[in-house]
Amino acid sequence: MTSTHPGFLKRNGLSIVVLLFMLGTWLGQILTGHVVYNDELSDLAAPALSLWEYLASGHFVSATFENWESEFLQMGMYVLLSVSLRQKGSAESRPLDPSKEEERIEKGPKPWPVRVGGVWLKLYEHSLAIAFTALFLLSFVLHLDGSWRHEVASRQLEGEPPVGVWEHLASAQFWFESFQNWQSEFLAVASLVLLTIVLRQKGSPQSKPVEAPHSQTGT
Known about the structure:
Elements: H1 8-43, H2 51-55, H3 58-84, H4 112-116, H5 118-125, H6 127-157, H7 165-169, H8 172-198
Helix pairs in contact: 3-6, 3-8
């Protein structure tokens, strides 16, 4: 008897492929960043770092978590703002009519926090925002640490006195690194929200049905 239950790869294909793309591009960042940083060190007549030494450097830590920080900020803010705000016609918006929300819930066993209730339900109700907030704060701290250590190392090679972490936190350089990423993330979200009003992608859950009117909100 042939089983109709989807296999592991079919059930998890999207996350697997996205994670493979992430790991592949992260490896590319590591290899090229290693070359770029060693070029910088060479210009300053400093010894080159091995790949393992580079992974512990402020240059790598800052570059990595500077981007992760902005991604978690983008998704966290989007999750929170989409709770109470709507965009008519956008596939990324919840329905304007709250009564249509029930149509999105499929029949099946409820998650255990819903069944248990109490404090577990309260936490579960906001668990997505809590997770994104925690990931953003962790990435922000690691970005600060890496960026500060990179500046200290650069100043040391140039014969300048080091700066404290709080001084670096207040510097234009640190906030330039943050804001240049944050603004691009909000631009990406705004583009997705607005473009899904009039544009379609057949077969994508991020798009309304091709035949749906522009005024329809959500899928």
